[in-house]
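Hi R.,

Here's the chain you asked about this morning:
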Amino acid sequence: MSNVTTNAQPSLVGPGEGDAYWFLGALATIKASTETTGGGVAVIEHLAPQGHGSPLHVHTREDEWFYVLEGELTFWVDGQVSVAPAGSFVYGPKGLPHTFIVSSQVARFLLVTEPAGFERFTRALGQPAERREIPPPATEPPDVDGLAKLAATFGLQIIGPPGIPA
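And the predicted structure, written out as tokens:
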């Protein structure tokens, strides 16, 4: 069942605009959401430090793609490792296990899901950003079990830790 509706309206979200969250050690700014696109697409701009990445996971509801604006990311998608410098596009269809890490000192990239919905996970797990910058380092390790349970409610299966599998 698709969450796409016909209530999308034209919109413009300018530089420095959008709902900003500190999300898993990155600044995540929601540029497009279920509400603004009628469920068609979510666009989240990330600013993240070296070593930031996602747990190994699978999307069951949406396809996901990345566009690297600055810096470099390293991806692992279904066993394939790819290095993606600025200007690179990486596509991960739903159902395939994948993860990534920021391999440069800092990276800025777009994370896009189609249909929308992933931004709701960002809001649920993240905290409103106090400033539009990379958050301070966490003082405690993340609650992996809690993360996996929350992710499951958004159609995400966490299947391993962050980092590129050996």
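The chain has a mean pLDDT of 93.

Let me know if you need anything else.
M.
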